[in-house]
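Researcher: Next entry in the queue.
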Amino acid sequence: MGKGKRLRAQRVKDQSARRTRELAPEPSRPVSTDDMGGGRMSSYTRREISKQVYAWMILLSYLEGALDGADGLPENLFAPQTPDESDEDYAARIKTDRLVVETQAMAGSPAEQVAEVLSSWVPRSLVPGVVDHLAAEGLRQLDTATPDPDQWQAGARPLLGILCPPKHWEAALDQLEALSTSRLKINDVTAGHLTGQPVATVHAAAALVTWLYGRPDIIADPAAARLELAEKAGKFGEFVF
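Model: Structure for this entry, 241 residues:
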């Protein structure tokens, strides 16, 4: 087999591996705080910067899904069960929602972008740091705003329906409630779920922060804020990739 064919075969193998895993593998080399010389930063510094960059990338994908990716989706996607909706009807609707979301993910939607970031670059050991940085983006906006937790959860639920893998919906809803009640602070409840449900926690944090960007009383110019995130991700991404 020629070199070109070997490289193509390896790329196909790598893509297949990413599709079957949800988080990236842990690095094979230990993290070091020693500078590498030649102006290159230590692996520890690069790792710390990467947490922030991955959080920005995930948030940008969520913002894309919220602002651009909901066209053609049911208005009640992933909505709570209504009083006049039977258990059977609710289960059937959620099953349909699941199929819609899975179809969109296969079509290259923002949901696939989030999955790609997690499976390619974010190992389990980095998830707490990524969640911390996602929360920090929201906490910057909460200095001057106090959203009602119930309203916050209701607004973020559809975002989970669009972007979170259906198998993580239940765990993500638990984290959505815990994080909105704690105003994005990582307490004992959220920390426990973070250990057992890292993917769900990332999605819950991203959905809550994204909802803030859709509130003009909280963020006056969402487009400018989104551009600022993209510029920061691009600038600091040079140190990571």
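Model: Residues 28 and 123 are 11 Å apart (CA to CA).
Researcher: Noted, moving on.
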